Amino acid sequence: MEKKSLLKRITGSREASLVIVLIVLCIAVTIKSPNFMSAQNILEILKNNSVIMIMALGMLCVLLIGGIDISITSTLAFAGMTIGMMYKYDKIESTFLGFLIATAMGAVCGLLIGVIIAYGKVMPIIATMGFMYIYRGFAYLVAQDQWAGADALGSFKDFTLSNSLSFGLINNTITVTIICYIIFFIVLKWTKFGRCIYAVGSNAEAAEISGINVAAIKTAVYTIMGTLAGLCGALATSVYASAQPNMQTSKEMDVIAACVIGGVSMNGGRGSVLGALLGALVLSVISKALPLVGINAIAQNTIKGVIIVAVIVLNVLTQRMMDRANLENREM
Amino acid sequence: MKKKVLSAILSVAMAATLLVGCGSAAEEAPAAATEEAAPAEEAPAEEAEAPAEEEAAPAEEAAAGGGTYAFVSKSAGNPFNERQATGFEEAVADLGGTAIIQHPEAPTADAQITVIQSLISQGVDSICVAANDENALQAALEEAAAAGIKVCSVDSTVNVASRLTHVNQAGVTEIGQCLMDAVYDITGGEGQWAILSATSQAANQNAWIESMKEIQAADSKYANLELVEVAYGDDEPQKSTDQTQALLQNYPDLKVICAPTTVGIAAAAKVLQDQGSSVKLTGLGLPSEMAEYIGDDDAHSCPYMFLWNPIDLGRLGAYTSAALVSGEITGAEGDKFTAGDMGDYEIVKAGDGGTEIILGAPFKFDPSNIEEWKEVY
Prior knowledge:
The complex is a heterodimer. Chain A has helices at residues 2-11, 14-32, 39-48, 50-64, 72-88, 95-118, 124-143, 150-153, 172-190, 192-202, 204-209, 214-239, 252-261, 273-292, 300-331. By secondary structure, chain A is an all-alpha fold. In chain A, helix 4 runs antiparallel to helix 14, helix 5 (72-88) runs antiparallel to helix 6 and helix 5 packs parallel to helix 7 (124-143). By secondary structure, chain B is an alpha/beta fold. Chain B is built from 14 helices and 15 strands. Chain B is globular, with a radius of gyration of 23 Å. Classes of the chains: A mainly alpha, B alpha/beta. At the A-B interface, helix 3, helix 7, helix 8 and helix 14 of A face helix 1, helix 5, strand 7, helix 10 and helix 11 of B.
C-alpha cells in the first residue's frame, strides 16, 4: 500500500515527472562530460539563464490568466538599451539606479499593454505583437546605431560578477533569481491576489460575478510581466556586459516554452511556480549540455526541439493519467 | 461602444507605429531629409507607393551638384553599418555630390528590394549596396541597371550579374591569413585552437573559416597547430557564452579561440576574462565593444584583433560609385582610378568570376591604438 502510493505520487504529479526528466538529463550528460554537475558549471547554467528563468515567472502569471505576452524581449531590449546608453554617456553611475530605471521602464511598458488588453479588450497576442515592434523600435531609436560595450558600462557590469547581495554566499544574478522565485511562490500560493489570478484564468466570468475586478487583475499581471522584463533588461546588460538593440530577440519563445514544459496550461488557470522553475531548468540544461556532449553544431537546434517536444508529450501523458486517476477516485 | 473604443485604440496604435517608422527614417537619412523633409519622412512606410512625390528632390539636386549617389546598408541599428554610411557621405560631400543613405528597417533582402525600387524611381545616378542576400537582389538591381543606374556592392557582395564591381573590405585569403598568423603568433606556434563563429550559414564566416583551414593545411609551419572545433554561437550573447564555456571544458589544453564575428568575440572575451582563463582570444571585433578586453597582460583576454575600417570602406564605395558614373571605370578587370586622398585603386578579378576592388589588409587593433579607436566605432 505504501509503495503504491509512492509510485502514484511520482507518476501522479507533473512536477515530479519533470524532476525525473531533469535528473535523467543530467545523468546522461554527466556520463559524456564528467564535470557537468560541478559547482562551477551549475553556477554558469543558472547565471547564463537567469533572464529566461525570471521572465518565466511573469509569463506564468500571464498564461495563468489565459493571456500571452510576446513583447517581453522588446521591453527587455528597450530598458536595457536605455540604461546602457545612460552609462555610456555618463548620465548615471550608480548600479542601483540603473536597475531601478530599467525596472520602472518595464513596469510602465507592461502597464500600457495591460490597460489596452484589459480595458480595450484587445486580444493579448495581437496587442503584444504590436508592442513587440513598438518597444523594439524604441530600443533602436534609443541606441542611435550604437552599442554600449563593456568599456562603456563601467562598474555596472561588475554587479553580476560579485556576491555582494548575499554577503559573499552566491553570485548576485542567482540571488536576484532566487528572491524573485520566493516572492512569486508566496504570492501565488498564499495571497488573495495569487488566488485571484488563478480564479480569473479558470473562469473569468465566474470570477467577475464573485466580485473580482478581472480587468484590474489582468492589468496588474501584464504590469508584473513588464516589470520583470525591465529588470531582466538591466540584468542581461550586466551579465553580458553589452547592450544591443537586438538583444534577446525571439527569446520570448524560450520563456513560453519554459512555462509549457513546466506544465503551465496555455488556456489559463493551471500552472505553478515550481513547474515554471523546472521548465526553465530543463531548457537551461539542454542549451548548456548540447555543445558539451559533442553534438554536431548544425544539429543542435533540432535536438533541442526534439527534447522539448518529448518532454511536453511526457508531461501531457502524466496530466492525462492524473486526470483519469482523479476521475476514478470520484467514482468511488 | 466597445467597438468604438477598440477602433480608437487600434487607430492610435497604427498612428504610433507610423510615427516610430518616420522618426527613425528622418534621422537615418539625413542627406535626403535636409532638402525636402516631407518625402523623406514618408520613405520607409510608403516607399513603394509614393515614388512620384519623392522624385522631385533628387532631380533638383542632381542639376545643382555632381550627381546623386545612393548607399543601401544592411540594416539600421548597427554601429558598423552606420560608420560605413558616414564614410560614404563624407566622400560624396568631398566630390560635391548628394548622398542618399538608406538603412532598411530589417536585415533582410526584402527590405532592401523595397529601398532599391524607391531609389530607381527617384532617378539616382548610382546605388552602392551592402547586400543581405547574394542572389535575391538580382531582379531589383537589374531593373536599376536598365534604368541607367550604376550598381556596385560593398562589404557583402551581390552576384556577378547584379553588379558592375564589388568593393571588398579585404580579400577572403587576406583575412584568413591574418587570423591564421594571429593564432600562430598567440599560441607560440603549437597547440590546440578553436573557432567560434556566428551562424553555420553565414557566407562570409564560412569563407573565412574555409580559408583558414586551407592556409593551415598548405604550410608546414602550422603543422603543430590543431583546430579542435568550429562552434556556432548564432551571434547571440547567451548561446555564444554556452559555446565558449563548452570549448573551455571539452578542451582543457586549448590555447586560443578565434572568433571572426563581433558578437561572438565580445561574449567569448567576457567569459575568458571573468574566469581568469589562460586561453587567449583573437578574431574580428568592434573596438568599442572590445576595448575592455584588449591588453597584453594576463588580466586581459584578447592581445589583439582585427577589423576593417568601415569609414574607409564607405568612402571607397562612394569614390567607386562616382568613378562608375563619370565613366572613368566600367567595372572591368584592370581599370584604375584615384579614390580622392585614399590613393589609387585597381579593379581585380574576384573569386566568383566578377570583379572587385580590395580596400586593403584588415586593420589591427592592439593595446596601443584601442583607446583611440573605441571612440570611433
